[in-house]
Design brief:
Blueprint lengths: L2 E6 L4 E6 L4 H8 L16 E6 L2 E2 L8 H6 E3 L4 E2 L3 E5 L4 H19 L2
Parallel strand pairs: 1-7
Antiparallel strand pairs: 1-2, 3-5, 3-7, 4-6
């Protein structure tokens, strides 16, 4: 078992996380306010941008293969190196979905 330091940029917070433990679980234990919802890698509420370092997250089904290189779902992600994460940063697929929903809503509103 190896321990790694996970630093959250812009907050001054850092924790030590085992390579056998998810980042979210350790945040909860340490009282760090990390957002989450489903805890099964689907909702993306716990997303964080990987600023530095690497994670393993084979069950992060909500992310594309490309997004897994730059984003961590903290409910699934386990560190494989020291990390710097920027919490509350979401992958482009979320923003794309939001843009589509907004366009659909605007189109529907114009039909009245």
């Amino acid at each position: 078992m190896t321990d790694y330091t996970v630093e959250f940029v812009g907050t001054g917070e850092s924790i030590t996380v085992s390579d056998k433990q998810t980042i979210l679980k350790r945040c909860i234990e340490e009282g760090i306010a990390q957002e989450f919802s489903c805890r099964v890698g689907m909702c993306l509420a716990c997303s964080a941008e990987i600023v530095e370092g690497d994670v393993t997250q084979p069950a992060a089904r909500g992310l594309t293969e490309e997004e897994r290189e730059n984003y961590a779902l903290t409910c699934m992600a386990r560190p494989v190196s020291d990390l710097k994460l920027d919490r509350g940063k979401y992958p482009p697929s979320i923003e794309d979905d939001g843009a589509v929903a907004t366009e659909s809503s605007e189109a529907a509103a114009g039909d009245d």
